[in-house]
Specification:
mainly alpha, MetI-like fold, about 80% helix, globular
């Protein structure tokens, strides 16, 4: 009896996965294929859209803005999220629950509302400039909006929960006895952090960093409101080409390039960690 039922159980897996496969085909694979087709056929067949995107200095600046901001946001988010996740892991359960609830509440708050709140805080007459001037740190208000500085600040705030949660899951699994053993062996707190805690938390750092970087590449609302047209990023370019100029070919090419970069980064991360685990 077990020999006859095992193949049936193995074969039934495809049946359970079929709805998910059909959903993926209908709402991802087919639309992406149609977008790729339009990028290669509109306004005329060929690679002209991709040549224009990769060869124009105007579009090169947009690509630079996108990857530069995504990289800076990811780096700052890691630096802020790591101590926050570590604090959550070592705090008493009651205080940790309160801090965790605050983080989730900020994550669940409407994105548009959070971005407009940062617009109010960062403007020249906003709270941040008034506080800095009141403390005597600056004489004139800083220009914190309509530039990449404001975009970076707003996106770091928005991306923090997406970095904290993966880090927290990994750090909570680290046995405290390992850090105690490092201390008994003469390691200072800094050495234990660099040589023990950070390497053990590396999977959480990598997964969170990849998530933040990829999401930052495709963000639209925050760069549009805090950056302005002079600091356009790739998602804004795609929206402009499709909605305003009705240029599906160029918009599709930009979107497909963004997708290729995203999948490439994911493949690099998988290869890196496969080698790390094998080593």
């Amino acid at each position: 009896m077990p020999a006859t039922t095992a193949p049936r159980l193995r074969g039934s897996g495809f049946g359970f996965a079929l709805p998910a496969i059909l959903l993926l085909l209908a709402f991802f694979v087919i639309p992406v294929a149609m977008l790729l087709t339009r990028s290669l056929t509109e306004p005329e067949p060929g690679l002209q859209n991709y040549i224009t995107l990769l060869g124009s200095t105007t579009y090169a600046k947009i690509f630079f803005n996108t990857f530069f901001v995504a990289g800076v946001v990811t780096a700052i988010t890691v630096l802020i999220a790591f101590p926050v996740a570590w604090t959550l892991a070592i705090l008493p359960k009651g205080w940790a629950a309160v801090l965790f609830a605050v983080i989730l509440l900020s994550m669940w708050t409407n994105l548009l509302a959070r971005t407009y709140a940062w617009m109010v805080l960062l403007q020249q007459t906003g709270l941040i400039n008034r506080m800095l001037m009141g403390l005597g740190l600056i004489d004139q208000p800083l220009q914190l909006t309509n530039n990449l500085v404001g975009v970076t600040i707003g996106m770091v705030y928005i991306m923090l929960p997406f970095m904290i949660l993966p880090l927290l899951g990994v750090i909570q699994k680290i046995d405290p006895a390992i850090l105690q053993a490092a201390a008994l062996c003469g390691a200072t707190k800094g050495q234990a952090l660099r040589r023990v805690l950070v390497p053990l938390a590396a999977p959480g750092i990598a997964s969170g960093a990849l998530m933040v970087f990829v999401m930052s590449l495709g963000y639209y609302v925050t760069p549009s409101l805090l950056g302005g047209t002079a600091n356009m990023m790739l998602a804004e370019l795609i929206a402009q080409q499709v909605q305003s100029l009705v240029n599906w070919g160029m918009g599709g090419a930009a979107a497909f390039l963004l997708l290729v970069v995203t999948l490439g980064l994911y493949a690099v991360q998988l290869r890196f960690f496969e080698r790390g685990e094998a080593g």
